[in-house]
## 1
Amino acid sequence: MNYAEMKSALDVVSDPVDKLELVMDFGRLLPSVPDAAVCHEILGCSSYAEICISGNNFYGRADSALVRGIVAIITAMVDGKTADEIKKMDLDSEFASLKLNLGTGRLGGVNSMIRFLKNL
């Protein structure tokens, strides 16, 4: 599932709990990390999370269903883009536009993921 499809699906859901359940569904669709990918642990997440890179393709994994869904969204935002293209993106605003009701711990992890991507 690409980012545009994820955003469209989230846009039609108004209930905050249903939105978070949908995010967890996205995590179940997260593609497997290829053997050749280079993985980086994201420090600052409330659970274990990694973002993995193979060329301009992004993958991820996490030990929490919700964080896995967040990783799926963030990696879909940047998948296929170069480091220069990612640096020009406003990932903070784009993620905020999804209007997910996340606690401060989860938002800290989101910020850590975005900071990692901006520093590629």
## 2
Amino acid sequence: MSIVGLLTFSNFNGLKAQDAAAAPDPNATEQVDETAAPAVDEAVAEEATEEVAAEETTKSFHQVLKEKYIEGGAGWMTPVLLCLILGMALVIERILYLNMSTTNVKKLLDGIEDNVKNGNYDGAKELCRNTRGPVASIFYQGLDRINSGLDNVEKAVTSYGGVQMARLESNMTWIALFIALAPSFGFLGTVIGMVAAFDAIEAAGDISPTVVAGGMKVALLTTVFGLIVAIILQIFYNYLITKIESLVAQMEDGSIAFMDILVKHQK
């Protein structure tokens, strides 16, 4: 009996020890929860930071420009913007006009020579009338004076060539004006911003980044935008100048070839 009682007591103690090991410790749970709480807060904070960064990076170019325009001050950014709008309007007008002024001079000269060779000066004039561009207009003025002699034809071609050249260069001076005005307004905004910054320093009696930042920001933004506008307009201006020079050379070469045709098939 004593042996059976000893075995029963031993089994009872073993089961009790297993139950104690399996039961959760409330203190341990609290410690785990207290340890995990800061990690969760840090994860939430990191997610919020990533969302803010994503929103900042997804801003469109238009939104960034609008913000910088407002930060630079409408009073000084508006003149720079007007220079860009008016300058680009003139640039587009000149590009369209110069592209429409481009003529296949060789084809036109071949058609004139075929008509002049057969004595059909009216047909040559009609061909020039139906062909767009300054070269055709110059040839028409020369053919219109064919009865007055070749000297008068040459004078008409030279005089009307100068008129057409002036038309090609029309509005170019205004584009050059806006190229000069845009950075000038930017620099003026810079000076005014610097003056405002020094006034703020004088009023505060202390030099601090917070006091100086406002005026300096206006100064830098107006300068940057003024230079950007000037660079854009300057690129288009150089393109237009190159196009005009090409058309003028085409007019001069075509006029020489035109006079050679008239001399060769003199009426």
